Amino acid sequence: MENKSFISKLQQELPIGEAEIFSWEELTEKWGQYINDLIEHDFQKLISLLYRVDVPENKLRQMLRDNPGENAGKIIASLMIERLLQKIRSREAHRSKPAGFSGDPGMEEW
């Protein structure tokens, strides 16, 4: 799948604004700004968002620890993008399998 299609799917997963985004840099920047705003004004909403996206807590803590002078919002945004891409790819891989096929060629379809 091309980048623009992935970016569009990511925006559907986490709609933050009205503007269409065309690059990974724009997406990371916009999500990073949004996350920084949540850090400052609504930390509980950020925690809920991280839980919903299923960002691994240990990976998040490690990334923040390893990059102390970096923009926390961008680090978190990158991890969220990475996790959402994994979910999108997984859904597409499962969607492309024929219906009713269990992987066992000897099994009957119901």
Short description:
The chain is an all-alpha fold.
Molecular structure report:
By secondary structure, this protein is an all-alpha fold. It has one domain (3-89). Helix content is 67%, strand content 0%. The protein contains 5 helices and no strands. The longest helix is centred in the C-terminal third of the chain and has 24 residues, at 72-95. The mean pLDDT is 81.
In quaternary terms, these chains amount to: single chain
Order of helix and strand elements from N to C terminus: HHHHH
Computed Rg: 17 Å
Number of domains: 1
Mean pLDDT: 81
β-strand percent reads: under 5%
C-alpha termini separation? 32 Å
Portion of residues in helices? 55-70%
Residue stretches low in confidence (pLDDT < 50, at least 5 long) are none
Major sheet = none
How many H/I helical runs? 5
The SS-based structural class is mainly alpha
Question: Could you give the count of β-strands?
Answer: 0
User: What is the general shape?
Assistant: globular
